Amino acid sequence: MNTYSVIMLGPSGSGKTVFLSSMYKNLSTQGKRGFFLKFDSAENRKRLINTYAELATDEKWPVGTLLSEVSEWEFTCCVQTEDLSIYDACKFVYIDYAGGRLTDEMGEEDEEFNSKIRAADTMLVLLDGQRLCNLMRKERDGVIWVIRDLSNILGVVQNIKDKPVHFVISKWDIVEPHYSLQEIRDRLLEIEEFSDLVRIRNKVGVPVRLIPVSSVGKEFATLQSDGRMAKNLGIIPKPFQLEAPLACILPDKIKIQVRELTKKIIEEKGRNIEVKPELGFGEVAGQFFGLLGGGVKNIQQLLPEKYRFDENVLEDLIEGAERPAREKEAQARRRTEELRAKQREYINQVNDEKTALDSAISSFLSIKNQLDIDFPESDLGDV
Known about the structure:
Elements: E1 3-9, H1 16-26, E2 36-39, H2 42-57, E3 70-80, E4 86-97, H3 100-103, H4 111-119, E5 122-127, H5 129-136, H6 140-157, E6 165-169, H7 172-175, H8 181-189, H9 192-203, E7 208-212, E8 221-223, E9 229-231, H10 243-269, H11 281-292, H12 296-302, H13 311-322, H14 329-347, H15 353-374
Parallel strand pairs: 1-4, 1-5, 5-6, 6-7
Antiparallel strand pairs: 2-3, 3-4, 8-9
Helix pairs in contact: 1-2, 5-6, 10-11, 10-13, 10-15, 11-13, 13-15, 14-15
């Protein structure tokens, strides 16, 4: 079964543990999304459910990952058909590193940490929404966060060249009442290290996103005058957009794979052609088709095994990568309806692991497209 790994980075208190427990709880049943997550390990399932129960009912917040601890959470993505049969599609492994590994002085270089980062398919970086509010208000805690936490995070991210980077804004429930994503984006891009990292990645076609999420949703907690988040006990959490980062993993990774494959073929053929950074993804794929002749089937055959999706799925992935996030709303909504229709079509065809993966990817594309509609500024590819 195909396995895709996600390295989770974020300083202490950014909400990684809460994010994972809430994501699992929210995606543990299929619903309209067209897929769900399950644990093969009963111990890990109980651990995350207990963490979620602590999150939802206790006065205190769950304890974060210990400095010495590396937590790996393996989820199986499944699809349930109309006759209630369940098929495994793929696995996602989330590697949660303690925030102290980024900010505390540990003496020796952590080679295990570095090797797992190099092997990951995607980097998920949690940006603490509370600290972003401090930054927007020009408060001392916001400045400390930029100088210490954000600088350490960006120092790790800049050394990884071939992976999509999803900056996930946690605690969106306390950010949204005061600031829009556009305002947060503009402020982050005023930070030279952040804007440099985004532009360098854009130059080589590596996707970078800024995705707002909330592990608890509105009205669950209230920000106190001393900076603490006090829970409003009795309110049931209503997570917001926790599926979006997961849904963007494969569409963004395919974008990188096709661009790199095109460059490799050009080099092997000795052609005097440049895969220019400003070229749209569709234009890059067009170059590829022109070099080899034929269509998507050529890409399918040359991709690494775990990215050799069905031809129709690859076409959808390529088309989705080509579309600008800020396309006209009417056009984007038409695309959403098309993707939902395809999602229903795929789920009716599921009868094994391969068709289950095709169906799950169709669901991912639908979620990603909705993100582009709701938050067009989330895609940092136009910076």
